Amino acid sequence: MSDGELRVRRLDPRAQLPSRAHDGDAGYDLRALDAGTLAPGERMLVRTGIAIALPRGHAGLVLPRSGTAVRHGIALVNAPGLVDEGYRGELQVLLLNTDRVAAWSWEAGDRIAQLVVTRPALPEVVETTELDDTARGAGGFGSSGLR
Asked: What CATH number matches the domain at 7-118, 2.70.40.10, 2.40.440.10, 3.40.50.300, 3.90.1150.10?
């Protein structure tokens, strides 16, 4: 594998290793260590029971699962969650139930998020007094319109 290896340490014997459902999938499923329930509007830090060592020069992005989001309104508060190459603590997922009425429950071992391993660009930071002009300019939030 040209991208090295993703080393995983189980911090709890019940923890499950990250896995991909299909060969071409970019994300590794992360699973909940324990069962739990999120009340409407509640957020919770959910344990995975694993720690990882990313390949040199890589970072991890913890992302929501699209099916859980569309069916139950479950989001990640800090999506994407950034895992730096040198981080060795437990991967935890900060879930948020955006549903205003229904609670959402999961069992131990359920897939709660996904981890994408990527190689970030790390350009040198250079201070300048001017920036090149572009067609967009300083237009930000909503500046490109609805259509």
From this structure: 2.70.40.10
